[in-house]
Design a protein that fits this description.
With about 450 residues, this protein is of the alpha+beta class. It folds into 2 domains: about 100 residues, Roll (Ubiquitin-like (UB roll)), CATH 3.10.20; about 325 residues, Glutamine synthetase/guanido kinase, catalytic domain (Creatine Kinase, Chain A, domain 2), CATH 3.30.590.10. Helices cover about 35% and strands about 20% of the residues. The chain contains 14 helices and 18 strands. The strands form 3 sheets. Strands 7, 8, 9, 10, 11, 12, 13, 15, 16 and 17 form a 10-stranded mixed β-sheet that branches. Strands 1, 2, 3, 4, 5 and 6 form a 6-stranded mixed β-sheet that branches. Strands 14-18 form a two-stranded antiparallel ribbon. The longest helix has 21 residues. About 45% of the residues are buried.
Length: about 450
C-alpha cells in the first residue's frame, strides 16, 4: 500500500475526530463480518494488517491453518451516516491474506478480483447496476406489513415511504449514488436502485446497502428483510443485475450498425449467460427460500431465454435510447438480494466471458409471454428452465467446471457441502402446510 495513500486516510480520519473504525469483510455465504479498532491502531493495521482466526468464519480456513490477516483497503473508506454512542465511526472493507502475504483463495472479494483480472487481460472493464428489492415488516417475528401499496404507488405519507427516503439520504451520505427508488409490487415492498459502477466497488456497495437498509429500519422500530420470498401469494424480492463491458473507454456491447444496437460481443456474452444459467443458479440464488421465488408468475424469471424489453425472459435487453450508447446493457433477472454479491458477480462475468471466448451464438429472442407458452411450445423454441429447488441447483453446480474455476476449489467445495446440509435440514422437516393439509385427513 502506498505510504502517501495510507497517510491521507489516517489524516482524514483524525481530521474528522473519528475514534473507532469498523473493518469489514464477508464470509463465503455473504454475511458481513466486522471488528472494531481504535484510531491509534490504524497505522499499524494498514501497514501490517490485523490477524484473526479464520477457522471461525464460514467457508474460511481449517483450524490447523487458521491464521488470517485482514488488510484494510483505503479506497473503501467511508464515514457511517449515523453516530454510534455519539461518535462518528468510519468503515473500510478488507482484503484477506495468508500470513505470508498471498491472497486468501476463499475471500469472496479475491474471488471477484480474479475474474475482473481475467476480463482486464481481455481488455474489458465490468460494470454492474443492481436493483435490490426488500420488504418492511413490523418486526422479525412475522410478516405484518407497513403499507398496502403496489408497483410505483404514490401512497399517502406513512412510515414505509419515509423509511425509504431516509435510507436514500443515508446511502448518499455514505457516498453511494442512488439512481431512484420506488414502491414495488408487493405490499410494503420497496426498491432502491444503485448507479452503475465497476463490479468490485458495486459488490462493496451492495454489502453496505443491506446494512444501511436494515439499520435505518431498526432505528425506526421496524424490520427490513431481503428474504427472497417472505410471503405466500405475494411477489418475491429480486436483485436484477444490469451489466456491460467497456473496452478502451467505450461500451463493448454497443454496435450502431446492428438493428438492436447490440454488438457481437454482447450477443456472445448473453449466450454465455444463458448457456451456464442452470449451473450458476446456486450462487445467484443460494437459499432454499430462493426457489419459492423462482416459480412461474410474479414476474420471476424461470425460463432460460432472452428478449428485448420482455420481462418474462431470464435476460432482458433494455430499449436503446439515441445518444445513450454507454447505457447499452443486459439485465439478468434471476439473482435475489440474499446472495453473496462478490460471488454472484464473479460467476455472471465468468459465464459471459466464456461466451465471448468461445464465440457462442445467441439464439433468437422471445417475443411472446413465455409464461403463456405450453411446454411443447417452449421445447420447440429450445427454452429450458432454471432449477426448481435447491437440490436441483446443487446437482447442476456440482458438475460445472466453469463455476469451479470461477470460485476456486475451496469456495466451490464449501458451498456444495453447506448447501447439501441446508437441503437435508429443509427436506426432512415437517412443515405447517403438511400438518394443515394432511393431519385432519390421514
Amino acid at each position: 500500500m502506498p505510504q502517501e495513500l495510507r497517510h491521507d486516510v489516517i489524516q482524514k480520519i483524525k481530521d474528522q475526530k473519528i475514534e473507532f473504525i469498523h473493518l469489514w469483510f464477508t464470509d463465503v455465504l455473504g454475511f458481513l463480518k466486522s471488528f472494531t479498532m481504535d484510531v491509534e491502531e490504524l497505522d499499524n493495521a494498514m501497514s501490517e494488517g490485523m490477524g484473526f482466526d479464520g477457522s471461525s468464519i464460514q467457508g474460511f480456513a481449517r483450524i490447523q491453518e487458521s491464521d488470517m490477516i485482514a488488510y484494510p483497503d483505503p479506497t473503501t473508506l467511508k464515514i457511517l451516516p449515523w453516530r454510534q454512542g455519539g461518535q462518528l465511526v468510519a468503515t473500510m472493507f478488507c482484503d484477506i491474506v495468508r500470513p505470508d502475504g498471498t491472497p486468501y483463495e476463499a475471500d469472496p472479494r479475491y474471488v471477484l478480483k480474479r475474474q475482473l483480472e481475467r476480463a482486464a487481460k481481455m481488455g474489458y472493464t465490468f460494470l454492474v447496476g443492481p436493483e435490490l428489492e426488500y420488504y418492511y415488516f413490523k418486526d422479525d417475528k412475522g410478516t405484518e406489513v407497513l403499507d398496502r401499496g403496489t408497483y410505483f404507488d404514490q401512497t399517502t405519507r406513512d412510515l414505509a415511504i419515509d423509511l425509504r427516503k431516509d435510507t436514500v439520504r443515508a446511502l448518499k451520505r455514505f457516498g453511494i449514488q442512488v439512481e431512484y427508488s420506488h414502491h414495488e409490487v408487493g405490499p410494503s415492498q420497496h426498491e432502491i436502485d444503485l448507479r452503475y459502477a465497476e463490479a468490485l466497488t458495486m459488490a462493496d456497495n451492495v454489502m453496505t446497502y443491506r446494512v444501511v437498509v436494515k439499520e435505518v429500519a431498526q432505528a425506526n422500530g421496524v424490520y427490513a428483510s431481503f428474504m427472497p420470498k417472505p410471503m405466500y401469494g405475494e411477489a418475491g424480492s429480486g436483485m436484477h443485475v444490469h451489466q456491460s463491458l467497456f473496452k478502451d473507454g467505450r461500451n463493448a456491447f454497443y454496435d450502431a450498425n446492428d438493428p438492436y444496437h447490440l454488438s457481437a460481443t454482447a450477443k456472445s456474452y448473453i449466450a454465455g449467460i444463458l448457456a451456464h444459467a442452470r449451473e450458476t443458479c446456486l450462487i445467484t440464488n443460494q437459499w432454499v427460500n430462493s426457489y419459492k421465488r423462482l416459480v412461474s408468475g410474479y414476474e420471476a424469471p424461470v425460463y432460460i431465454c432472452w428478449a428485448h424489453r420482455n420481462r418474462s425472459a431470464l435476460v432482458r435487453v433494455p430499449m436503446y435510447k439515441p445518444g445513450k450508447e454507454n447505457a447499452t446493457r443486459v439485465e439478468l433477472r434471476s439473482p435475489d438480494p440474499a446472495c453473496n454479491p462478490y460471488l454472484a458477480f464473479a460467476v455472471m462475468l465468468a459465464a459471459g466471458l466464456d461466451g465471448i471466448e468461445k464465440g457462442l451464438t445467441l439464439p433468437a429472442d422471445v417475443t411472446d409471454d413465455v409464461y403463456e407458452m405450453s411446454e411443447s411450445e417452449r421445447a420447440a423454441c429450445g427454452i429450458g428452465t432454471l432449477p426448481g429447488d435447491l437440490d436441483e441447483a446443487i446437482v447442476e453446480m456440482e458438475k460445472s467446471d466453469l463455476v469451479r474455476e470461477a470460485l476456486g476449489d475451496q469456495v466451490f467445495e464449501y458451498i456444495l457441502r453447506n448447501k447439501k446440509a441446508e437441503w437435508i435440514k429443509y427436506h426432512t422437516r415437517v412443515t405447517p402446510y403438511e400438518l394443515e393439509a394432511y393431519l385432519p385427513l390421514l
